[in-house]
Amino acid sequence: MEINNLALLAGGLATRLKPLTETIPKSLVDINGNPFIYHQLKLLKENGIKKVVICAGAMGDQLENYTKTLIPEDIEIVYSHDGEKLLGTGGALMNAIGYLDEKFFVMYGDSYLDTDFNNINKYFLNQNKSGLMTVFRNEGKWDSSNIEYDNGILISYDKKNKTERMKYIDYGLGILSKSVFEEFKDKKVFDLEEVYKSLLNKNELSGYEVKERFYEIGSFNGLDETREYLQEN
After folding, report:
1. Which CA distances in Å does 207 have to 82, 181, 197, 210?
2. Is residue 25 reached through a cis peptide bond, with omega within 30 degrees of 0 on the bond before it?
3. How far apart are CA 147 and CA 62, in angstroms?
4. Three-state DSSP class for 208?
5. Range 162-172 average pLDDT
6. Is domain 5-232 classified as CATH 3.90.550.10?
């Protein structure tokens, strides 16, 4: 079964990029002559994604207006807006659930993840679990490591309570089944971290190690690195 739809979490306030993001959402920050989301959609199309559900928050209308000017072949773009109150990454997914297939990829709106989605898809389907988290051996280099992972097994995941055993980081790409949101149906605002933790506690979360490093535009340093990488590739 090919999973070819993806939820793109693009609702954050991008406070670390101010004043750059005072008047535009993070996804529209210029990267080598095009908004960042242009590069993301191009990457997703190359990886066989047919439908992207953009979970938009702050200044989401600007983002929607920009993507209307694109005519991407073989990829459908749908918007799910948080509304007046930001819903958090988990709440934004819950809000968008009606637009998504039974199983879907999820990716952060500030991540550029040049990896093989097809291999991740195959691994997930072979594991017969409700969710998958990609991980990268980070060793605290590009961001704070928050995952303990060993021989294909996710042992712990915590963004706040970190230990020395955590050598890996959430890479930023996952796969989820719609059914995992059933226990959150009474919550409006929550984080994707809660979903992953719940799955991990139930032994329903697979871990997939990615060897290619991640790029992100959540910080000015990340912006510079992403611009340099895309300039060369």
Report:
1. 29, 19, 12, 10
2. no
3. 35
4. strand
5. 85
6. yes
